[in-house]
Design brief:
heterodimer; A: alpha/beta; Peroxisomal Thiolase, Chain A, domain 1; 10-stranded mixed β-sheet; two-stranded antiparallel sheet; 14 helices; 12 strands; B: mainly beta; 2 domains; 5-stranded mixed beta barrel; 1 helix; about 40% strand; globular
């Protein structure tokens, strides 16, 4: 198997509803990534594009082919990936395998979404399509409701008073907002830096006990990364970022995950694969972009990824152990909660952030000093799809 | 290979307040809702059984922001119930004020009935859903 490097990255600003089409958004991110790689669009052998809901957002299916043609990758094979919020990470992982196999030497992977354009009602309906349509949606499950139920289950399982847990979750939000406020690509750039525990707890209730500030926003945006074989990467850049570990696992309806909940078993298996492949342990990770669609999701993820003991992640956030300068810097981009969550693009956005952190290129206020190893963590549905990737400096 | 129990039969039974599941003939695990293969060991060697509908609440939430087409239903309580025989199923809790439920709901025993979700333009028709009420 060949070594595979990220040689260039691109990303649109993540935002609320806007007027650029999905094809245009992806082309913007991809062209930036290709230019940064010192390549031309015609050099790209294949495209791997995450897109969860384009059919409903714009009435556009098969977005990958249109995006390929739009950005100048004429006649290149272009695949669309749908794994809910993990779509782009699935795309990057598959792109990795095609390059690792030696079949392609240069590909682009990423994703695009216009979730915000749908508005709250339709976005809530369509996101619920990633729960079980026959056995769970009839009861009116929504995405915030899944994580709201996991919050109550978490409090009960680890015997943490709900008010205490809610305060710990507010700390997650505050940390994410702090970093997102100085990330120009973030949806909440320049916003929410003065958030307090009281304001988080006092914002309107979406699903008990989750308030608006426990939830990530709906977002439009795109992200893309160029992957190349080691041989090609060395010619293109002095700072190749190698993908050294990958993992992916799936799971069924939320109710059938009962042997492990509030732990997400698919994440434990996926991250184990990635750690084993890279030959590292959780304590070797300098920064982690993890799937904080809701504040509770950060705690659940950080525990399953091996950073903190079960039931203890909230304390870690309170002590700053999950921030820059702590045990592991979690979501220095602002994460889904502040950077935004254009679901089909989110995983590629995580790779974008980790690559730039390892290259030492982000804003000084949120740069993880001397970062060498980064982990991405992307969750689709209510634990139905989990993807993890480990990236390391190649210089 | 035919599945031993399909959604359609499960749904029709639920409308009669009967909860169907599958018992694995290899490992004895109970699977519900229905699947081709046992959720524990993956064997398709399962037989249809009728499950007891008694259970206890494992978690809950009150939903204040509904999906498009279901705005008029809020606020409503979603629960995940652990059935006496082990499986967890999702449903709604009725008969209590959605705005006043607390963590004390967890562990409470419930009885199961059903209501029909008529479906919308995205769902291929109607589905019955479990409606729970506090027991005793």
């Amino acid at each position: 198997m060949k070594k595979v490097a990220v040689v260039g990255v691109g990303e649109t600003k993540f935002s609320g509803p806007q007027t650029k089409t999905e094809v245009e958004l992806f082309a913007e991110a991809a062209t930036e990534a290709i230019a940064e790689s010192n390549l031309k669009a015609k050099d790209i052998k294949a495209l791997f594009i995450g897109n969860a809901l384009g059919d409903i957002e714009e009435g556009q299916g098969m977005v990958a082919s249109y995006a390929a043609e739009n950005l100048g990758c004429h006649y290149a094979p272009a695949n669309r990936y749908e794994g809910a919020c993990a779509s782009a990470s699935m795309a990057v992982r598959d792109a990795f395998m095609w390059v690792a196999s030696g079949y392609y030497d240069i590909v682009i992977a990423g994703g695009v979404e216009r979730a915000a354009t749908m508005g709250t009602g339709l976005a809530t309906r369509t996101f619920a399509m990633f729960s079980d349509a026959r056995y769970e949606y009839p009861s009116g499950v929504t995405f915030p409701a899944v994580f709201a139920m996991l919050t109550h289950l978490y409090a009960d399982t680890y015997k943490i008073p709900l008010q205490k847990l809610r305060e710990q979750m507010a700390k997650v939000t505050i940390q994410s907002y702090k970093h997102g406020a100085i990330n120009p690509k973030a949806q909440f750039f320049g916003k929410n830096a003065d958030m307090s525990v009281e304001k988080v707890l006092g914002s309107f209730v979406v699903c008990t006990p989750l308030t608006l500030h426990d939830c990530c926003p709906f977002s439009d945006g795109a992200a893309a990364v160029v992957l190349a074989s080691e041989e090609v990467a060395k010619k293109l850049t002095k700072k190749p970022v190698y993908i050294t570990g990958i993992g992916q696992a799936s799971n069924g309806p939320l109710g059938n995950q009962n042997d492990y909940l509030p732990r997400i078993r698919a994440r434990e298996l996926s991250s184990e694969q990635a750690y084993k492949m890279a030959g590292i342990k959780p304590q070797d990770v300098d920064l982690c972009e993890l799937h904080d669609c809701f504040s509770i999701a950060s705690l659940i993820a950080a525990e399953s990824l091996g950073f903190f003991d079960y039931g203890k992640a909230g304390e870690a956030w309170e002590k700053g152990e999950a921030d820059i300068g702590g045990k592991v810097a979690i979501n220095p981009s602002g994460g889904l909660k502040a950077k935004g969550h254009p679901i089909g693009a989110t995983g590629a956005g995580q790779v974008y952030e980790v690559a730039r952190q390892l290259r030492g290129e982000v804003e000084p206020g949120r740069q993880v000093p001397n970062a060498k190893i980064g982990l991405t963590d992307t969750l689709g549905g209510d634990g139905g799809t989990l993807v993890n990737m480990i990236l390391e400096r190649g210089w | 290979m035919e599945q031993k129990l399909y959604f359609a039969q499960y749904n029709e039974a639920l409308k009669q307040n009967k909860l169907l599941g599958l018992k694995c003939q290899q490992c004895n695990a109970i699977t519900t809702p229905p699947k081709m293969a046992c959720r524990q060991c993956g064997s398709p060697d399962m037989e249809v059984i009728e499950l007891k509908t008694d259970g206890k609440i494992r978690t809950f939430t009150t939903v204040f922001v509904g999906a498009e087409g279901r705005e008029s239903e809020v606020p409503y309580i979603l629960v995940i119930v652990e059935l006496e025989e082990g499986p967890w199923i999702m449903g709604n809790l009725e008969g209590v004020d959605p705005k006043s439920v607390t963590m004390e709901l967890i562990g409470k025993k419930v009885k199961m009935g059903n209501k029909i979700f008529a479906g919308d333009i995205y769902s291929a028709g109607e589905s019955a859903r479990p409606i729970f009420t506090l027991a005793g």
